[in-house]
């Protein structure tokens, strides 16, 4: 368990750093209230000591954030926005169109790593990205897809890295061997394991708390030894994962997630 302890330490250090930065921003922001803008959107102006130039960001249709560098002024920021009015309107229009027919909507809350967080999508001058809790996810945007479809593809890629690594760690701890790990878009199950020891995991496990996704992985790993749900199987699960009842309950209660993000 050493490795996961290190990971936790690293992520809490990163979190503290981020909180420090957020506090600084908040302090500066105190002097600069959110200003409603003429027309159909509002702009939040924000000073950032580390910014090197003005940055305009479309947070969602109707909401802009403009970052002001140390030498910048509010007037300068306004001029910067005025020069990009066409681009801004274009991006906002695109965001609206690109949402598609999904339960997931920009600005609404979704479950992410076990917590309810707002689904935020930004269009910066560099490209599209989604902000989910502490994660920033770059979105490769294909012209024919809606933005939620792009986001799901990006989350699947992230799941493929994180869940495969976690499966390898847990397999090592349990002393079992796995032939392959595949991340799937299953509508009825969180994971599965074939008789040939191929483990499949649902990308939606990224929405569950890490102890729950750990349980799903352990559950599948123990199937490499017992290809059934008999008493020997559960006995071994209990030893490997004493909280398994609680995890099973969480998965049942959140089964609705398996139908998301599409209607
Ligand atoms: Zn099973």
The biggest sheet amounts to: 3 strands, mixed
Order of helix and strand elements from N to C terminus: HEEEHHEEEEEHEEEHHH
Number of strands: 11
Count of helix runs: 7
- Give the helix level as a range of percent: 40-55%
Q: Structural class, please?
A: alpha+beta
Rg result: 22 Å
Name given to the CATH homologous superfamily of the domain at 156-259 = Metalloproteases ("zincins"), catalytic domain
CATH domain class of the domain at 156-259: Alpha Beta
Strand content: 15-25%
CATH architecture of the domain at 156-259: 2-Layer Sandwich
Oligomeric state of the chains present here? single chain
Overall pLDDT metric: 82
Regions with little confidence, pLDDT below 50 for 5+ residues = 1-14, 19-38
CATH topology category name of the domain at 156-259: Zincin-like
Chemical compounds bound to the protein:
zinc ion
- Shape, please? elongated
Sheet with most strands: strand arrangement: 1-3-2
CA-to-CA gap between the ends? 39 Å
Task: Give a description of the structure.
The longest helix has 28 residues, at 2-29. The model is unreliable at 1-14 and 19-38 (pLDDT under 50). Helices cover 43% and strands 21% of the residues. The strands form four sheets. A three-stranded mixed β-sheet has the order 1-3-2. Among the domains are: 18-90, no CATH class; 156-259, Zincin-like. α5 (210-223) crosses α6 (231-240) and α5 (210-223) crosses α7 (244-253). The protein is α+β, with helices and mostly antiparallel strands and 263 residues long. The radius of gyration is 22 Å and the shape is elongated. A hairpin with a 2-residue loop joins β4 (109-112) and β5 (115-118). It has seven helices and eleven strands. The site of zinc ion has 3 residues, from α5.
């Amino acid at each position: 368990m050493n490795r996961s302890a290190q990971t936790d330490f690293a992520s809490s250090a990163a979190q503290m750093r981020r909180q420090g930065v957020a506090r600084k921003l908040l302090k500066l922001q105190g002097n600069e209230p959110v200003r409603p803008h003429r027309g159909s959107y509002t702009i939040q102006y924000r000073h950032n000591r580390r910014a090197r130039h003005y940055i305009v960001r479309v947070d969602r249709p109707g909401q802009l954030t403009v970052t002001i560098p140390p030498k910048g002024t509010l007037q300068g920021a306004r001029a910067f926005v005025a020069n990009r009015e066409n681009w801004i309107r274009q991006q906002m229009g695109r965001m609206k169109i690109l949402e598609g027919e999904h339960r997931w909507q920009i600005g609404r809350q979704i479950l992410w790593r076990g917590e309810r967080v707002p689904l935020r999508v930004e269009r910066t001058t560099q490209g599209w990205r989604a902000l989910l809790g502490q994660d920033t996810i770059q979105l490769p945007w294909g012209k024919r897809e809606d933005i939620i479809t792009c986001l799901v593809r990006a989350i699947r890629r992230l799941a493929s890295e994180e869940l495969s690594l976690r499966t390898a760690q847990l397999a090592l701890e349990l002393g079992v061997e796995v032939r392959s790990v595949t991340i799937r878009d299953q509508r009825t199950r969180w994971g599965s394991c074939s008789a040939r020891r191929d483990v499949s995991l649902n990308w939606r496990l990224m929405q569950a708390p890490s102890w729950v996704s750990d349980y799903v992985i352990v559950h599948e790993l123990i199937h490499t030894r017992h290809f059934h749900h008999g008493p020997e199987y559960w006995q071994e699960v209990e030893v490997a994962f004493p909280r398994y009842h609680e995890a099973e309950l969480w998965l049942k209660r959140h089964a609705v997630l398996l139908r998301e993000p599409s209607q």
